[in-house]
Amino acid sequence: MDIHSTRRTMSDRNFVNSLQRGLTILETFTRERPKHNLQQLTQATNLPKTTVLRLLRTLVSLGYVRYEAASREYSLGPKVMSLGYATLAGMDLRDIARPCLHDLSRLSGQNVNLAVLDGIEAIYIERITRKQLISTDHTVGSRVNTHSTAVGRAMLAFLGDDELRDALGRLYDDPETARDLRLGREQFCRLLKSIRRNGYAVNNEEYIMGIRAIGAPIFNGSGRVEAAINMPVFSRSVSMKELTERFAPMLVNTAREISAMLGFVKPAEGPDVQESEGKRSAGNRASPR
């Protein structure tokens, strides 16, 4: 039995609830909300205040959380940062992709980013910067959504059947995300299908006004989508025609080059998005709540 399997549930006797609760507290701190007081953390985690306070004291003593007495607020400590950088630094993908990203940035004169999928979010793990895009201000470690970003859509479109059904379910089960998406399931599935057919995704000011972007998937040796690269541009400087006709081929070629270096040899055959969603919908109808 694999003792490190990620397919654990809270009913598993090997599942440590206290560890899960501590990690839930750490995950509450985001780029948008880097500081919280006790009441905010209690509300965000849905845990008893006494439990949150006990976990916070432990995390503070270990250096994973800092407490500011003057404001009575908590923030992430240096231990968390060191873990994050150690994880990112250990990713072979970054070392493999970096020279290709530099070449692409130099050839295009644009910024280029590398991201990996984490649930229904994309995390930037490498950035090559040539132009300052004030509106984005993303750094290594920044998270962005997958439904309205080119880099996220590029990965969603090439997920396997089970992963795609799970991602679509999580996207549309969240009311706020569903509203932000502004597309019905069938429309979004058609969009993902077109991305798979074209080999790249486009974001036309859907994530940030004034910024367009293209994204292309990267595959590993087993044919699974491993990551994606994207190229954001100022809308006032680069038209959609130039983005798709001039820059998209550069981006796709770079993604293919990185994929080949990871051992990918076969053309990707993504799942039929509409079929996958249809199965999920049928399953939901068969098992009403």
Walk me through this protein's architecture:
By secondary structure, this protein is α+β, with helices and mostly antiparallel strands. The protein folds into two domains: 17-82, Orthogonal Bundle (Arc Repressor Mutant, subunit A), CATH 1.10.10; 91-285, Beta-Lactamase, CATH 3.30.450. Helix content is 48%, strand content 18%. The protein contains eleven helices and nine strands. Helix 5 (92-108) runs antiparallel to helix 10. The longest helix is centred in the C-terminal third of the chain and has 22 residues, at 240-261. Residues 1-8 and 268-289 have low confidence and may be disordered.
Keywords:
289 residues, alpha+beta, Arc Repressor Mutant, subunit A, Beta-Lactamase, six-stranded antiparallel sheet, three-stranded antiparallel sheet, 11 helices, disordered N terminus
Topology:
Elements: H1 17-28, E1 36-37, H2 38-45, H3 49-62, E2 65-68, E3 73-76, H4 78-89, H5 92-108, E4 112-118, E5 121-128, E6 143-145, H6 150-156, H7 161-173, H8 175-181, H9 185-198, E7 201-204, E8 211-219, E9 225-234, H10 240-261, H11 273-286
Antiparallel strand pairs: 1-3, 2-3, 4-5, 4-9, 5-6, 7-8, 8-9
Radius of gyration: 21 Å
- Write the element-wise H/E pattern from the N-terminal end onward: HEHHEEHHEEEHHHHEEEHH
Distance between the termini: 34 Å
Proportion of beta-strand residues: 15-25%
Question: In a nutshell, what does this entry contain?
Answer:
With 289 residues, the protein is of the alpha+beta class.
